[in-house]
Every structure is written in C-alpha cells, then in structure tokens.
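User: Run a structure prediction on this.
Assistant: Running it now.
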Amino acid sequence: MTPTITPRDHDAYMQVLWYFDPTAPGARQPGSFSHHLIQAFARADITNTLLLSSVYPAYGTAMRMVQEGLNGGLDQLKTWGQQITAGTLGPDHD
C-alpha cells in the first residue's frame, strides 16, 4: 500500500528529505528550528521520538519512514519530491 501525503505535511516531509539528500528534487532546506528538530529526531531514543512525534507528527512520520525503511522510506520521499516539483502532487492531486 502506497502511503499518502497531505498538503499540510509537504514542507515537513521535504525538509526531512533535504536532511538526508539535499540535492533531491523537491527537497527544501529547513529553517533553524526545523533543522534542530530534525536533528533531535535523528538522535532521539524511542521514548523521546514518541514524545517529539506527539507534537510534530509529520516530522516523526517522515523520520520513521527513512530511519526504519517504512512505506518506501527515503525512496518514497524522493518520489513525492519529484511529484511536488512536477506539480503532480499538491492540494489538487493528493
């Protein structure tokens, strides 16, 4: 089953993509807070990951996708990045 991405989650997912592959189409460099948040997710143990995810669910889902290879992992984020760049994934296409 292919996961879905909501328009509200685009930025978070594409910022996580940038963290792992800054040259990927659609990847967006996060601001200072978001960058530190992604770093916190990257370093967190499971307890703190769950705590962070309760407040920042889109970042938590994207990080789990990459770190645990869930739902296509980094490759799925890259696919979404390409679709966002091509204009085939967005509010009218989700």
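The longest helix spans residues 73-86.
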